[in-house]
Design brief:
single chain; nine-stranded mixed sheet; six-stranded antiparallel sheet; alpha+beta; 3 domains; Alpha-Beta Plaits; Jelly Rolls; Rossmann fold; about 600 residues
Length: about 600
């Protein structure tokens, strides 16, 4: 078994399955009786041969060299030895990255460009999130028909061991059939998909709502004329999304964009934290692979970890020790993870001390996988060779409550010692928690920089921070940059505090939402308008991807009080759609200026 082909959590799960909480195991074990596990596989070559040779129970080709697979636990080691199986990982649990519309330079554009009124017509918005309230008036045309081309609800119609396009796909015709009923209960009988969280509905409204539910359409979104392809991620037995669910959603919306022959902006509203923050996470590499498959732009918020104390950093020299303290005051918390990322050229050892004073052995590469039991808490540590980059090495630490109790309260101490140091810098990131838990689980010496969440450190994605439109200040929760490998992030910022958006409640049509996902929704809407202008008005199919991202960055507003730019809070500045469109027109009129 080639150990570094496996992600750290997979290594630990294979060796210490009995110590894992039921909550964690349910995210990847699909059949306890047959011991079938679900994995993300990055591969080369013949996928069908891998299926046959390793008796894979189910396989779904996600394209771009990635596949979703189900296989017996005892075959995972054999598969990892195959030279064409490049990397294996367990699905990563993601979190929706909002807590909780009208301030944006040039939003709700009423002026025309070259005699054309821009509203996003002809462009698709793909949202992969918690679903949508499809019967909200903001997603229905004046003629009473839906603006949703396809709605794939992954949570309806799941069957055991079925992967790929499990769930149920609803077409615009089926949604229109539902809308012809006046009663909500009758509509749900025809198309039973519902957004029970409200996150996806809010993002869709900010990016593309037409405002029909508000007086004078004052709550109109940025691109009210576009059509949407919606994916509700998850499973009927899980109330959280995983990276593999997001990947399947991306594959679906791209397929529909190609089928309909329309450009698309894809909006993601999720995040995770236990990766290298350098574009190397499986979901990030998948986005990069799919980025050039069609006329696409990907957009995501930078996450809401800026003030959550989930990141710390330091620098060691040879012979020096430094302690990282984690305060946990959430007795009900059953699992928690953190990861230490360092340069592989640096040799560091680690000792973990529990709140009661018990300690692990001195851990290093000589002890790649270890487990300890301290006061009914299993502490699992993976310390192995690099997986994706020879420069980056991770020490993965997983706290798992045993029995019926939680992890409990107390101060955990991680002591790093520099044995042979060349560079010495390291970063530590902890699990993203709920708002209630976040205030009670924290690093005692946090670092607000590099608090971006995954996948906002991907190469092929526009990363959006949030600012308060009333005070013109970056929101304290907004994830800061730069990426761990030194790239600018966020790219820019957009309004993200107390934004009016469509609601899922039967009693009200609108609510307010706060977070970087809603800021990302503004930028997604901006990309849709720029695509419409470039592809349909300027008649140039090359207006997508980096071409459009550059226009937004070039024309962002940059208040002098926050200079210099780009910086780790504001990126290149505040989005200004009007300026970007004007710049596009000027560049188109001067063909020598087009790159």
């Amino acid at each position: 078994m080639i150990i570094n082909k496996m992600a750290p959590l997979l290594q630990l799960a294979l060796q210490y399955e009995t110590l894992l909480t039921d909550e964690l195991k349910e995210s990847f074990i699909v059949d306890k009786t047959q011991n079938l596990w679900e994995l993300v596989m990055e591969y080369e070559g013949d996928l069908e041969r891998l299926r046959t040779d390793y008796e894979l129970e189910a396989v779904y080709n996600l394209q771009g060299g990635f596949a979703q697979i189900i296989l017996r636990k005892d075959q995972i080691g054999n598969l990892s030895n195959d030279p064409y199986a490049l990397r294996l990982s367990l699905p990563t649990v993601m979190q929706y990255i909002d807590i909780g519309v009208g301030q944006i330079c040039g939003s709700n554009l009423e002026q025309s460009m070259d005699g054309n009124s821009l509203d996003g017509a002809g462009v698709l918005l793909g949202i992969i999130d918690s679903g949508i309230r499809y019967n909200h008036p903001d997603f229905i045309t004046d003629e009473g028909t839906t603006r949703i081309a396809y709605l794939w609800d992954q949570t309806i119609g799941n069957t055991d061991n079925q992967i790929g396009r499990d769930g149920t796909i609803y077409t615009s015709e089926q949604i229109n059939e539902a809308l012809r009923n006046s009663e909500i209960n009758q509509q749900i009988m025809v198309v039973p998909s519902q957004d029970t969280l409200g996150h996806g509905t809010a993002l869709a409204g900010v990016a593309a709502g037409n405002g029909r539910g508000s007086a004078n359409r004052q709550n109109r979104g940025v691109a009210p004329g576009c059509e949407m392809v919606i994916v509700k991620v998850g499973h009927s037995e899980r109330n959280y999304p995983r990276d593999i669910d997001i990947m399947r959603g991306i594959d679906f919306v791209i397929e529909k964009a190609v089928e309909l022959e329309r450009p698309m902006t894809i909006l993601l509203g999720v995040g995770s934290n236990l990766e290298g923050h350098d574009g190397s996470a499986p979901l990030e590499r998948y986005i990069t692979r799919r980025y050039e498959n069609w006329l696409l732009n990907f957009v995501v918020g930078t996450g809401n970890e800026g003030n959550k104390n989930t990141h710390t950093s330091g620098n060691l020299v040879t012979g020096q020790s430094q302690s990282i303290q984690i305060s946990i005051e959430a007795p009900e918390l059953r699992e928690y993870g953190c990861c230490i990322w360092k340069k592989f050229s640096d040799v560091m050892s680690l000792v973990i001390q529990s709140p009661s004073g018990e300690e692990t052995d001195e851990l290093s590469l000589l002890t790649p996988n270890r487990a300890y039991l301290f006061d009914e808490v299993a502490v699992l540590i993976n310390y192995s060779a690099p997986i994706t980059s020879i420069n980056q090495q991770v020490i993965y630490i997983l706290f798992q409550a045993q029995g019926d109790t939680g992890i409990g309260s107390g101060l955990w101490t991680l002591t790093l010692t520099g044995t042979e140091i060349i560079e010495g810098n390291y970063h530590v990131w902890g699990t993203i928690l709920t708002e209630r838990q976040a205030s009670r689980v924290r690093f005692l010496s946090p670092d607000v920089n590099q608090t971006l969440t995954i996948p906002s450190t991907a190469y092929a994605i526009t990363k959006v921070g949030a600012y308060n439109g009333n005070t013109i200040q970056v929101a304290n929760f907004s994830g800061r940059g730069f990426t761990a490998d030194g790239r600018v992030a966020p790219d820019l910022v957009a309004p993200g505090v107390n934004i009016t958006a469509p609601a899922i409640s039967a009693e009200t049509l609108y609510t307010t939402i706060t977070g970087t996902s809603v800021a990302a929704a503004f930028v997604a809407g901006a990309f849709i308008l720029l695509m419409e202008y470039g592809v349909y008005v300027l008649d140039d199919p090359n207006y997508y991807g980096e071409e459009l991202r550059i226009y937004l960055l070039r024309t962002a507003q940059r208040p002098s009080s926050f200079a210099p730019y780009p910086n780790s809070s504001w990126g290149y500045g505040l989005i200004c759609i009007r300026a970007a469109l004007t710049y596009m027109k000027e560049m188109a009129e001067n063909s020598d200026g087009r790159g």
